[in-house]
Design brief:
10 helices, alpha/beta, about 260 residues, four-stranded antiparallel sheet, globular, 10 strands
Length: about 260
Amino acid sequence: MTGKNIGEVILDVKNISLAFGGVKALTDISFNVREHEVRAIIGPNGAGKSSMLNCINGVYTPQQGTITFRGETFDHMDSHQVATMGIARTFQNLALFKGMSVIDNIMTGRNLRMKSSLFSQAFRNPFGIGGADKEEVRHREFVEHIIDFLEIQAMRKTPVGQLPYGLQKRVDLGRALAMEPQVLLLDEPMAGMNLEEKQDMCRFVLDVNDEFGTTVVLIEHDMGVVMDISDRVVVLDYGKKIGDGTPEEVRNNEEVISAYLGTSH
């Protein structure tokens, strides 16, 4: 990955340890993420990848360590605070409203950006010129831009539950993009996809990184995908960090090869 304007460290994870009862999920994990890069977290099943994302996202509170985002340091993150600060997340198990249309699902990502009170949204001016109405028009315009970007115009009114899995994943990406995140956390965005769907998703992830300037942190099992689209890769195994560097450095790391690349995971 060359020619990209990768900036300073935007997210710094230091000495994170997480345990559930007596079971250690993460042990003393440290790594950083630079602005505008695609940063991958890889490792076999049970390595602690999703747990790491959940600590950044505020779902889990680590017992030790700190997370610094844009110069502010936290010993734990709060999910709402994380979203407000500009970190969005997609989920391995889709968090979509299956009975709602594509456009309405993506609109849910705009909730944080809505300035109008719930009261003014509930009691709108019947002539459609109230602040809440004008605001919704602006938000819908932004959502339409995302729908165009993700090439899902044809199914914008379709209930999400009627779409193939690969397209549902694309809608989930759209919902996260609607938050206008500075950092986008992707939890196995290509899981369960066929080759064509994976190629499409790779293209969208790179375009999000390039056109929106969004910093991307992704967990992914497909090593080919990771090596193709990542700027740097951190490798976890049994909750410990065993590698960190460029795709080339990680590919040639003996510990990584034995733990991950040399297996049939």
